[in-house]
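I am hoping you can look over what I have pasted underneath with an eye to the fold:
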Amino acid sequence: MIALPPQPDLDLASLVRTIPDFPKPGVQFRDITTLIGDAVGFAESVRRLSARAAAHRPDYIVAVEARGFLFGAAMATAMGLGVVPVRKAGKLPGVTIGVDYELEYGVDRLELHEGAVLPGHRVVLVDDLLATGGTILATAALMRSVGVEVAAAMFVIDLPDLGGAQRLGASGIACETLIAFDGD
């Protein structure tokens, strides 16, 4: 394995592509595929997230579908921890537990394997982007429903104008991000 040296001065935001008017007019889509496609940028993102997560002393990294899997799995590997995937309904084989949550235009469901985490475990939740916070709040509710302590939530990108960090804070979830972009 080739270990890339730390790049503390690397501007990660410069590696995120903005696609205007996607998926609808007026939206500035923040595309992480350019960041993860850059070996140094991806490694530095994982390094920074892992360092922040380590301060919370988690037992597991909980990665949220789908882009959270990319960062969560890499972080877990770097930290010597297991990764627990949280998926949309019907994607996991075996017995699952889940939580329904409201979307802007409907309801969705998140699930994890029964027994993947146990009462008393500490976890850090990971996703690529924080917008309104709804998915992470649902993931936290799922964790708490089985007695798991949510130590923090980590994101590569925050869209602060959408209020997700405030919603997480109001729910007692420490929130850390690497990059913030104004606007939605």
